[in-house]
Structure prediction request, 361 residues.
Amino acid sequence: MPRKTSEKQLSLRQMARMRVARGIRVAHHNRIDQDQDRESGISDENSPQETGRVVAHFGLNVEVEDATGARFRCAVREALLNDPVCGDEVIWQRVGDSQGVIVALRERRSMLQRPGPYQRLLTVAANVDRIVVVAAGNGFNPGLVDRYLVAAGKAGIRPVLVINKMDLVTDPALLEAALQPYGRMGYGVFQVSVLLDAGLTTLEEALAGLTAVFVGESGVGKSSLVGRWVQDETLKTAEVHSSTGQGRHATTTARLYRLPRGGLLIDSPGVREFGLHGVVREEIPGLFLDMRPFLGSCRFSDCRHLREPGCALRGAVASGDVSEIRLASLLRLMESVPSKNPFGSPGGAARDGNDRGQKMV
Ligand SMILES: Nc1nc2c(ncn2[C@@H]2O[C@H](COP(=O)(O)OP(=O)(O)OP(=O)(O)O)[C@@H](O)[C@H]2O)c(=O)[nH]1
Ligand SMILES: [Mg+2]
Ligand SMILES: [Zn+2]
Prediction:
């Protein structure tokens, strides 16, 4: 899809230009901000700088937790290059009793990002150790899960898979077949039911002492899961009023909660789809761990694993080493992201000069 790719490239260039423009504006504002702050008394230069952690972000305000667990609503200096997000460690100064201003962002050790509206890149959470990909066991569809696994691999953050609503599963054998590849790849797979309070202790133990972000489709039970361990009035689950169908309390903004026995959980709003950022088609197979052993063994170096003769991935499916569901998912995912070689022929040049593979599609 060369057209789609050139649009993507343009948008990246536009984004780069916007960043440069923003940088200049930011440098300018920095001075103004500090002058204005001084005049308005917003940040008392005598109040000591403290470290804290971002626990929520709404509009222009950010909620910061200090070392004692007290929470402060903070303004953000426009001079910060990145928007603070849940999990960020910040330097801030107190203003009055319950407010503050964030003056600097600590370097992030990891972050999960996705493309947002208006071609902006959104950071979902920072400084996380685990991405908890939540899916519902009933009607399990690997598409979104596999996207998250690719994003986690790209971000260098270990993912775990939580299959919730096991109480609603009608065909356990079918689900088991779909889940088996993930266990074989070494991912932690937790089959749970919040409703029946089943499987939750093992999951809690796996997350103890870590910072974990809960992601997945809307309604799969992310907030319900977090709510089993954390009592907090801000934790909203998508209960639907049976009579009116109204009053759905879906999560609208990411929030960080503290596990009573140590560890941090970030609940995030559900998504319909999860776009991959900065991932090109050619690197996707390498991020599918079960495909790795077979990569580079296809007869054609530019094999698209469709119907080309001598395809090692199709061979692995035929011999039962790789699940057919996974290969189908890989091909769908590869289709959905741009190629690194957008202006070449769709398949590039075959290694031995034989281009039959391309014509077969
Ligand atoms: N049957 C069943 N229902 C569940 C289970 N866990 C959660 N639910 C229900 O699923 C619905 C959605 O739960 P939420 O926790 O709000 O889902 P979410 O993933 O946080 O949704 P978003 O905030 O929109 O992303 C609610 O009505 C829950 O009561 C479960 O294990 N079994
Ligand atoms: Mg929620
Ligand atoms: Zn192949």
Notes: The mean pLDDT is 82.
